[in-house]
Specification:
The structure is a single chain. The protein is α/β, with parallel strands linked by helices. The protein contains 13 helices and eight strands. The protein has two domains: 39-212, 3-Layer(aba) Sandwich (Rossmann fold); 226-352, no CATH class. It has a six-stranded mixed beta sheet, sandwiched between helices. A two-stranded antiparallel ribbon has the order 2-8. The longest helix has 37 residues, at 316-352. The chain is globular and about 65 Å long. Residues 1-28 and 384-393 have low confidence and may be disordered.
Length: 393
Amino acid sequence: MKKYPSHRMAVAVTILCCVPWVIASDLPTKLPVPQPKPLVQLAILLDTSGSMSGLIDQARIELWSIVNQFIWARQKGIAPEVQVALFEYGNDGLPQEKGYIRQIVAFTTDLDRVSQELFALKTNGGSEYCGWVIKDAVEQLQWTTDPNGLKVLFIAGNEPFTQGPIDYRQTCKAAIEKGIVVNTLHCGTESEGVNGQWDNGARLADGRFLSIDHNRQVAYMAAPQDAEISALNIRLNETYLAFGMQGMAFRERQTAQDLNALTASPEAAMQRAVAKASAHYINAEWDLVDALSHKEADLGKIPDDQLPQAMRGLSVQEKKAYVAARSHERSEIQRQIQTLNQQREQYVAAERAKQQSNGNTLGSAIVQAVRQQAAAKRFDFVDTTPRKEGVNP
């Protein structure tokens, strides 16, 4: 073995010790890996038989207040993605061989489509097969496999839970085996629901059994903030930049759902405006601001004739600047709506505390159950509204 002088050994050791430090200092800083959003999946199964028009009206009005429960929800500090699915059952206008059941909308974040479908529903009949519609919802929908995801099913109706050829006990057990919680909302008295086995259906799938008054009018409490929220909602609509072959059709659908909400109830209009000011209202399919934010469009590849008139003929950089300006404007309007909504909620809560409760509606029952079940999945409900200095909630 060849021997080296001790001074050479010292130099060699020094070099070897320094080399990793030099190499490491030249490496780029490792960026944090973005964490996936936790998923909230709400499947709503509505009885559309002849006596359920009040239930459908409640669904139309309260869709937005249900979704708005998750504006402040966080799981490990991350806001969730909220998906909604709709089924109707008990409608004799639907095929008998399919159990008088129809999947209206699979899981989606397109809330305008959900609203549009709710306003298109008609009641008829019927034969209400609860076990069958639960089976279809469990098997047909793409439920997340993430154990931290919130998977909840709400079925509302008034006939015995035992109707139909498919045993509800089997389908409720199959649901909870997949981690899907089944909540049962009986349209009628609690005793009638118990006699009809609605409570047992929920019990088998770790859910809540609640009785609701499906004919009750959804209460609207006028608040001092309403006029300003309505005005901001109009300005918010002006920040949407429709693009693509179907862009204007989707923009018109947005306007139509604003009108549907306002016609249904002033409360629905307020809750819809608040939902539109949240991260849960996403229109990347037709709006450039959302599409670029979610990296679902390339401005350089969209033909000018499929862009808003004001953007045609601009360079790519000018187009990006135009969209960025609208995005900034939207964020500011949304912040203002959320701040006003906090003030509104405080006012409404104080006024309603002076009144006696008149029982549950579809929306209030869903909110009760879903907040409890979200907490079990370690969702926290905290206020994260961004504020400017000097602005008080």
